[in-house]
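Example 3.
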Amino acid sequence: MRYAHAIFLGSMFLTCLLLILGCQREERNFRQSPASAAVVNTIQVSDLHPGGQQVASPTISNQYEESAYAVSQGKQLFEQFNCVGCHANGGGGIGPPLMDNQWIYGGEPANIFSTIMEGRPNGMPAWRGRIPANQAWEIVAYVRSLSGLLAKDVAPGRSDHMSGKRPPANTPRQTPTGITGAPEQKQ
Amino acid sequence: MKALRTLAWIIVFGLLGCQSNHSSLSAAGPQSKNIEWLYWLIFWICLAVFVLVMVFFAHGTARTKVDEQEMAPVMENPEGDRRARVAVSVAVTVTVITLFVVLAFSIVTGNTVEGLSSKNPVTIQIIGHQWWWEARYPNPQADLTVVTANEIHVPVGLPVVVLTSSADVIHSFWVPNIQGKRDLLPGYQSAFWFQADKPGIYHGQCAEFCGEQHAHMGFEMVAEPVDKFQNWLSQQRKPSAQSTDPSVLRGREVFLTHSCVLCHTVRGTDAGSKVGPDLTHLASRRMIAGATLSNESGSLAGWITDPQRVKPGVLMPANPLPPDDLDALVTYLRSLQ
Amino acid sequence: MAVVQTNPPVSATDSLHQRLDSTWREPSGFGGWFKRVHHTTIGIRFIVTAFIFFLLGGILAVLMRLQLARPENKFLGPDRYNQFFTVHGSTMIFLFAVPLMFQGFGIYLVPLIVGARNIAFPRLAAFSYYIYLFGCLFFWAGLLLNTGADRGWFAYVTLSGPDYSPGKRVDFWAQMITFTELSALATAICLAATILRHRAPGMSLNRMPMILWEKLVLSFMVIFAMPAVMLSSSMLLLDRTVGTQFFNPAEGGDVLLYQHLFWFFGHPDVYIIFLPGTAFVTTIVTAFARRHIFGYLALVVSTISIGFLGFGVWVHHMFATGLPQMGESFFTAATLMIVIPTAVQFFCWIATLWHGRVQFKLPMWWIAGFFFVFMIGGLSGLMLASVPVDTQVHDTFFVVAHFHYVLIGGAVFPMFGALYFWVPKMTGRMLNDALGKWNFWLFFIGFNMTFFTMHFLGLRGMTRRVYTYVPEMNWGWLNLLATCGALLMGVGVLVFILNFFWSRKYGAIAGPDPWRAGSLEWATSSPPQSYNFAELPTVNGREALWDAAPNQPVVAGIREDIRETLVTDSLDGDPDHRMESPGPSAWPFWAAVATSGLFIGSVFSARSVLYTAVPVAITLIGWYWPRWGVSQRRKATEVWSE
């Protein structure tokens, strides 16, 4: 077997490729067009429905949730746009915490996008027109990483500042409650 | 000999180009002048050593060279070795002496370069950001503190102390015509001194790799006479220019109702965010985008619309504004003298 | 003085050959490939693999040069360029220079030069190769999958930390370090043990050829330097994956700590790359000046002192960080001090040539190239040692020029010299002379075009690691010149490859000693037999073949039916005892597979270390499981004196 060497090398290399292939984790697409902002109008923010029949809400996937770069951009924007002022680093304060499984206005990407863009009563400002859509989607991806909803290899590690909590990459997954992620009705 | 002459010409031509506003060999201050002197000293020493060693190597090889296909038998040369021992000892001694000369001049020059101090220097705080420079001229009276970006003015002939720090990663502050570089390390603050002697506009550049747009993290250092510098400082202290021109007012509205306001400060308006450079006196600067584009309406409009085309990876998002809004915004920004 | 061949040609002792060969022959077949443990096999594997990565790193360099050929070029863009320059640097240092210069040539040559049948700890050497290979594949698979490291070959924090380097790119880099340094450490142990305990009888320390001294010093440098970088890269990995705070300034971490740890390895590493170069130069100069090296003692002392001083200069990479001036001056002095032993080496080489009888064959061309190129690099290093000048040229293209002059001058030129010198030993055929000259001149001219230009760019303020530059800087034509030079260099290397394959088929038969050189590797056939020497040689002087007595004895009484080797005294090379050398085994391969699993797993999940440790334990137990037959044999042959 004179070519054992080459066969061996080739097979090892292919295995390595297959192991890691098919992930968008490392993409740094600086001019990526985000998921459409128009879909927001179709997002329901309440679990109450006339007639009691649940209408399935459309799922809008956020492509940024697969890109570690986009999530880290979202993290940076989360700090720079002073989201930390109310939500702290996910633990909450003036605003609700973002690292638990409770989602008052829904925990799907589109719900969170809509919450950021349109604002919510009692304090959440509407950022439409201020935050460009693609940056908002990046923030959405980061917000969801805080409760462990993103893949571990995409979620950010620890920050370079004081922080008492675990990095998102090491946070156990908090399964959102309810279909839109809204809290369960108190009987 | 011919090769040597060619080499000399290459060196001369290569270095002639060093007369520019971004070169370590075109000194415009006492620090860079001292360093340049030391550089040339070591250069000539090195050149002499190089020529000597090459001559000895070439001669040593040529004088004993034999042109045979077969490998010659092994030889012994005790008499040659005795002479070689003397020669090598002499050469080592000369090496040691030369190294001491280099060391001594290096330490003396180092002391001179570092030795600048003054009780009353011009103080500038430089904070490195990905990928721009924040410059603050602190004043005990808070509202007299000047904050600007990417264009640093210094008076000619006065000692300047720069207090360095970094907001994110390691950057390195370097204006080759004025002084050597100094790293801006997160978690560290340091002070370093220089003085500019020749008025002029010098180019500066981040010298430590700091990410995607490290290449375009430039700035300009404007060295000007003291009175001009003072004028500039008092101009920069003022809040932004107020205008009644309707297109300027329209642009101001665009600025305040779009994403600009989330990152930039324009003093005298509601825009007060510290994420990006302070734009209060943007129109007074020569360059934009980290000394990458000249400050003209066209490049400004292009930069606002699609910064990622000019500097891929930069933190400023694209702003696809309608043409009217863009025009008005550019008019407004151009009015911020 | 007569040139004596200690070992008669193979044919003369045919039955001996058959007996030895059946004991030492490498297993064949696909399965056998994973079991081979002979040092010539492992050495050639190292050399071939490292040379392939030299080519790959070179391709990246050419692509980078194309990007820089004109201002504001859009050929690569920052993201790709950052990956390319990082992977280029890391490949050249970690996957090419150290593995080829230190490990490959060391494992191949040292046992031959000491006159041994095999390297000490042959299975560890095999393990070292597999770990290195898996590290290479892991790192380059990363690049092909857009996970190529992009933070520079020294990956300074905080830029490489979790906050500013999302994804797994830096983790791949950090684990590649663990792979290659583990491999280098394993090789260092094998080489040090071989040199200290397997030298032919009569080869006392003061009769060791210079190349052995250099490999010995190198092995100890590797043992002391590599842990520092494994530590810093592991700390970086922990910061990134489990959220430790080693380098977080806000929590009391320190960004300068990383730089100290990295350069405490990084500067000795320069010498780890350069010292093998000097070893080749000494060997080739000796062979082609047709005389013993001049100033043997001075060379030994300067090699050892470089080994020590190399650890005392690391701060000269950090002059721009604003450390206290007194401290920086100390490191200037230390850096200038290390010039002295280097200068001594140069003077000794020149003296050897001066009073020799120089035959200017192909390897000597590369040594001449080395003299020219390395002198320039060393002298520009003198400028960098001076704190004030360094603050101006640090992190500019001047530094890029400097370290390419030092590393290509100090490693690649001697490497080509060594290849032209030793490839006939490895393949049995001479390399072509005309192609060799084309190779040399293309490479030499291209090299100087590329890198001499960069001195000017650096002085004119072009900082390193920039993916482009604005046209107003007027750096365009110099950069274009450099790019053309890079292409010439590339063609030069291609000529070498052509030469190699041409010579494998049509090259002149080399015979055991084509250069009539003096050290023991020339005493055996080319390529060497599976057992290296039919009869173990003894040594009478520094150049074993030149100094051999007319009736130089050989070692008798070593068993031929098992893999027995002779262990000698470290100082005098007196025979001490006989030892059975381990035979072929697939365990090193499996242990390397398991260890790689652990390293790769830890990139993705800290917890995986727990369960990937199980296969590592199993394979190591399998590897070291006592063999009944061997231990019985050992007991039976034990001789108790006194």
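Chain B has three domains: 2-60+80-114, 122-237, 246-334. Chain B touches chain A at residues 168, 186, 212, 257-259, 261-263, 273, 275, 306, 308-309, 312-313, 315, 317-319 (CB under 8 Å).
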